[in-house]
Design a protein that fits this description.
single chain, alpha+beta, eight-stranded antiparallel beta sheet, seven-stranded mixed beta sheet, globular
């Protein structure tokens, strides 16, 4: 719901509450090639964060968009890492998290969605709802994340707008309300009609311009568009008016999405989208931790690490932890408690990001995402506080779908390999498992592209050539005792000794078991009823 107006007798808001309410932290989700990275560029351009948007479809240097900095991204024109970008617009501070579009990086995307308060769903006007869009939407639904929808590429061959809205409703079980309505499509795409403000936003050679009208019956529409396009607009927009009106409560609960039409490549319709985010997207909300619920306006600082990124600057071999602030004010030079270890972490120069570019943040508030220089101490899922003992939930690891042994071409680089795998596991690029029999490490990934990224980064950043060998295992599970008593703990020790070649420890030294089939996994579950075989675990540890 919208923030209620303060009455005359209401106490003034604290600085923390005031700054928190200015924040809008959101992610962009889409199927690959829907235009997500291009839209990101245009949003940053509107927000004044950059002077010229990158040209995704161009060649060579021009192809290297501002938010895609990793070499494999530049080579393939895809996003495989999460970029974090901060900009101001309409008196608000926007933190934009550009998620990987490729389905092989769904775990990184899931972690990113744990750090946002809203999402922009980008849909290709010709293709409609695609497989990855549906998967990412389901993650948003699990977290009740409000969604604003941008139907992109209207200046190309496109499906009928009513057909697209019908598909969104039926496929995603999501109510829709058109915020704008397109004027034609493909070569005849002339702009959009702003449903709420009765304004034509027209696309021309010099960009876009607004033409206020009194409504769809205004004869000026015929003058501006021509008789036939005007009549077509009136007919389709009248039909679209049967969709429910925008309702803030329904949107904030994740049940309804406003729809905007445009072309990210031409920068058209993006301002409507950003204005909609400014009006509708929620500020930071309460966050659930193991000990209690944390409110953003609390004065005590708390936050969690949802991403680690190494070597964003190859000259400095840096490692940066991305911290989502949940409550309180972060000041440059603060020392925070790492709850997992009890250590005191210095935050001497917290960073605001625009892809590779960065600047030191003197202060940061709830909703902000800042980078903290990290020398192997912080991990994904870590909670940082002013001293309170609590852990934020919702940053999980999933059982990987592909398991491969790592083969090292040069045995002399074994120590370097271990360090590289540790760092990349810290980032969440892959999961690393070390078999209890001392054999070569096993890496676990969701898809083949993750293995390509791993081998590419091993060479580019660490100078280590590796290859992958298939294993006989099809799945793995984390193993934990059902109870913390000595009987179940002893059962776990016995289970791990039954077949050391099939047992391993993960990056956090938690025990795992490999299985060659679902039948073998189920048999172990039946034979060891005092143990739990888990397909996911919270990043700060297996649930007790």
């Amino acid at each position: 719901m919208e923030t209620p107006a303060l009455g005359h007798n209401s106490p003034p808001l604290s600085e923390t509450a005031t700054e928190s309410r200015r924040r809008r932290t959101f992610a962009i989700i889409a199927h690959p090639d829907a235009g997500k990275t291009t839209l990101t560029e245009q949003l940053l351009l509107l927000g004044g964060a950059i002077q010229i948007a990158g040209a995704v479809r161009a060649k060579g240097e021009r192809r290297r968009t501002r938010s895609d900095w990793m070499k494999i991204e530049q080579d393939r024109g895809i996003s495989v890492a999460t970029s974090v970008m901060t900009f101001e617009y309409a008196g608000q501070v926007f933190n934009l998290l550009d998620t990987p579009g490729h389905e092989d990086f769904s775990e990184d995307t899931y972690r990113t969605l744990s750090a946002v308060d809203a999402a922009v769903m980008v849909i290709d006007a010709a293709k409609g709802i695609e497989a990855q869009t549906r998967k990412l939407f389901e993650v948003c639904r699990l977290r009740d994340i409000p969604i604003v929808t941008f139907i992109n590429k209207m200046d190309r061959e496109a499906r009928e707008p009513l057909e697209l809205l019908d598909e969104i409703e039926k496929t995603l079980a999501l109510d829709v309300t058109p915020a704008t309505w397109p004027i034609g499509s493909g070569r005849q795409f002339g702009g959009v009609y702003d449903m709420a403000h009765s304004t034509l936003r027209l696309l021309g050679e010099g960009g876009e311009r607004d033409e206020p009208v009194s409504g769809l019956d205004d004869p000026r529409i015929d003058t501006l568009l021509g008789a036939e396009p005007a009549e077509t607009l009136r007919e389709s927009a009248e039909i679209a008016s049967v969709y429910p009106e925008f309702e803030m409560a329904s949107f904030r609960e994740g049940h309804l999405t406003p729809i905007y039409f445009g072309s990210a490549l031409r920068g058209f319709g993006v301002k409507h989208l950003l204005d909609g985010l400014a009006r509708f997207a929620p500020p930071p909300s309460a966050r659930r931790a193991d000990a209690r619920v944390v409110e953003p306006e609390e004065e005590k600082l708390s936050g969690f690490v949802f991403k680690i990124q190494a070597n964003t600057d190859l000259q400095h071999r840096d490692r940066v932890a991305f911290l989502r602030i949940c409550s309180g004010k972060l000041r440059k030079g603060a020392r925070l408690k790492q709850v997992r270890t009890g250590k005191s972490i210095p935050v001497n120069a917290p960073l605001f990001f625009f892809a590779k570019e960065r600047q030191v943040a003197e202060e940061a508030w709830p909703g902000d995402v800042v980078g903290i220089a990290n020398h192997g101490v912080l991990r994904i899922g870590d909670t940082l506080t002013d001293g309170e003992e609590l852990n934020f939930r919702g940053v999980p690891s999933f059982a990987p779908e592909i398991l491969r042994r790592v083969r090292l071409d040069d045995p002399m680089l074994a120590k370097k390999l271990r360090k590289a795998l540790d760092q990349l596991a810290d980032e969440g690029v892959v999961q690393v498992f070390r078999p209890l029999d001392g054999s070569q490490p096993v890496v676990g990934v969701v898809g083949q592209l993750q293995l390509d990224v791993l081998s590419s980064r091993m060479v580019a950043e660490y100078g280590v050539n590796i290859t992958f060998e298939p294993t006989s295992w099809s799945t793995m599970r984390w193993v934990a005792p059902k109870e913390e008593g000595p009987t179940d703990r002893a059962a776990l020790d016995r289970f791990l000794r039954t077949a050391p070649s099939q047992m391993a420890e993960d990056h956090d030294n938690e025990p795992v078991a490999f299985f060659s089939s679902d039948w073998g996994r189920k048999r172990s579950e039946d034979e060891w009823p005092m143990l739990r075989f888990l397909s996911l675990r919270e990043q700060h540890g297996i649930e007790k």
